[in-house]
Amino acid sequence: MPIPIIIDTDPGIDDAAAISFALHHPEIDVKLINTVHGNVSIDKTTRNALTLVEYFNKDVPVSRGQAVPLIQPPIYAEHVHGETGMDGFEFPPLTRTVKSDNGVEAMRSIIVESHSPITLVPIGPLTNIALLLKHHPDIKHQIKEIVLMGGSASRGNVTVAAEFNIYADPEAAQIVFDSGVPITVIGLDVVRTTNLPLEKLPQIQNTNQTGAMLVELFCHYRGENFQQGLNVYDAYTIMYLINPDLFTLRPAHVDVELKGEHTRGMTIMDFQHSQPNAQIVMQIQYEDFLDCFFSLLSYCP
């Protein structure tokens, strides 16, 4: 039976890869794509999510989530993803519209109406997920788990200490880690050990239409250490859902630094804690990563 999921996202070029894979894999059933502020503004992330669903002609609803973090002003990453968030590919004109302008309530409805527990897949800041868990704690038992991309057991990528998705709304992240819902964390650590070599781009481009589209986006993606390869962060969540046995996990108690002048947004991962609140993805073999990436791509048109 396919895994029913809700993707909470801020597309974003690596988000586009994750969404492409999720929409086409037979073992994944995308019930909703919900948008959030992050890589670009909420108007742009929502347009990008709608654009991807329309490009693939999928009957998957899109809802618009939170435009700003819980407390701080929003931060964006146009310098990485381009002004639109998905610069580099000319998508057809958009005709679709959102199912709901209240993403939190849209998620709640999907979860309540589902006949089996839903897996939440946040691949952007955690504002929507925090509000969902805070306002509707009664639905926690209907959430199978949260598989999120964010945080780091070592260095960050926005500051020395903090990874972007957590730094963009640290208070929301702390609410999620305090929620008691099972959480699997895919952080910078595992991604940085297995990037996508640039010499693989022609193979990706020649695989299918989706591969060609992704390469156009990837060529405009200016993440860290671009010349050494692409860090396709958010796609790891779908890889994990399909092939969890390929990944090494360790339990840890995760807290988020909320006050430090130089450490705000840092994820403190205590692997010795007696009460872990998350499973941390620590490792995937490089060859397994490449095989998994191309396997996911092969299901796309």
From TrEMBL:
<keyword id="KW-0378">Hydrolase</keyword>
<dbReference type="GO" id="GO:0016798">
    <property type="term" value="F:hydrolase activity, acting on glycosyl bonds"/>
</dbReference>
<keyword id="KW-0326">Glycosidase</keyword>
<feature type="domain" description="Inosine/uridine-preferring nucleoside hydrolase">
    <location>
        <begin position="5"/>
        <end position="290"/>
    </location>
</feature>
<dbReference type="InterPro" id="IPR001910">
    <property type="entry name" value="Inosine/uridine_hydrolase_dom"/>
</dbReference>
<dbReference type="Pfam" id="PF01156">
    <property type="entry name" value="IU_nuc_hydro"/>
</dbReference>
<dbReference type="InterPro" id="IPR023186">
    <property type="entry name" value="IUNH"/>
</dbReference>
<protein>
    <submittedName>
        <fullName>Ribonucleoside hydrolase RihC</fullName>
        <ecNumber>3.2.2.-</ecNumber>
    </submittedName>
</protein>
<dbReference type="InterPro" id="IPR036452">
    <property type="entry name" value="Ribo_hydro-like"/>
</dbReference>
